[in-house]
Please model this.
Amino acid sequence: MKRFLTVATTLIITLATQAQFFSSKNSENALRKLSIAEMSVANLYVDSVDEQKLVEDAIRGMLEKLDPHSSYSTPKEVKQMNEPLQGSFEGIGVQFNMMEDTLVVIQPTTKGPSEKVGIIAGDRIVGVNDTAIAGVKMSREEIMRRLRGPKGTVARLKIVRQGIKDTLLFKVVRDKIPVKSVDAAYIVRPGIGLIRIGSFGATTYQEFMDALKGLKAQGMKDLILDLQGNGGGYLQAAVDVSSEFLKQGDMIVYTEGRRVPRRDYTAQASGNFREGRIVVLVDEYTASASEIVTGAIQDQDRGLVVGRRTFGKGLVQRPIDLPDGSMIRLTIAHYYTPSGRCIQKPYEKGKQKDYAMDVVNRLKHGELTNKDSIHFADSLKFYTLNHKRVVYGGGGIMPDHFVPLDTLQYTKFHRELAAKSVIINQNLRFMDKNRKQLKKQYPDFQQFKANYEIPQSYIDTIMEEGKKQNILPKDDDELQKTIPYLKLQLKALIARDLWDMSEYFSVFNEESDIVKKALEILAE
Model:
């Protein structure tokens, strides 16, 4: 007991010397109370406790009573969270998928370590450094852990290749592997380019500029900026991309909080794409940094927004690094668009479950399928800066042109086939058998896009596998509604496997209602 009191007293004295971090005597008392509680449990509780977990649970408990975006992450979670935003990780450089219990290479990273030693699409990696990873029911996370590693270290891979009797051995020197945040960039119609940004990370701006330059060289005059499903990322990346559409000094976004003074973010130089028309594509999963770009383009009357109301994540988090590599992301301010709209949708503190169900509730209330179900109070009315068009606050960005969610296109039967991995596994098998023949028959993507049709035999194999897993359409009508969209998905997957993601979206977007609406607007 004496030892406990001595330790607790020492800790309290230490904390008291850090008074500059506290705004009042109440703050000091609250922290002293918390520290005594933790020390009491750790030293006096009847059973032993994991003190590290005790502290983590206390932190999570505090943050859960705040807004939905303040959070705590363990060191492992911090690393996983940062890799996509930092734009790289260290590993062997392959895109892969699991076919049953075997890792199949979809594509080696261009100029990456695996491609350099001769690993090709379709290869099966069955062993890493004398450890079997095929046929042993190893988790995907464990396989990734074995493939990744510090730059310069060697991964000795055992490869099974179709048509080759013996197992092949490769020594791959791990390296920095880029993580792309620009998913696609291609000419969708003569003079019209499409750039799809999946997230805003450290390399997004440079990737975007490279894509913009490439499309301009192909004759692009107008741009479709696809931010559907973009969950956000770095604020500065969003500001930099927005700047390319605006003139110097134009407001992009500003932030303000209780203890954080207002800070304006403006275009620092006249952008490289100020003349062409822009249409921004958004949906209910477009959030945070992507809403900043959307709001800036809309409020500055630089372009039009097409799709459905965005997610409404307008809270600014400051990362607070902790000594063990863990992190607190604490909300310190709100985002505001140039017209003064707060992006953040309403929420109740501590009601994370209700907040998470917001998109589901939008669907139930008809907002995603019927424009007439959306209502805004006059108090939420704002005006764009140049043309004085009416826009609305209240959370998220409401598009200029609403495109309803087609709930009939993606049938329940199709969803179950996808959820049970029937489609992806059959795609892997199909590409295994037909990759060489398809490459020979279609050396050019445009020829493939214009002429290739999914064979009925491919559809039959999916139906047979679905039947084996008791996945059946409820009637012939559901089956007939499923087939066209399934064929489109399969053709897009083949295009991805033969080329890359730009070709995937080039195929898939041909039947996208949101892309069709953007093209219709630009045709006017």
Summary: Residues 1-22 have pLDDT under 50 and may be disordered. The CA atoms of residues 31 and 340 lie 37 Å apart.
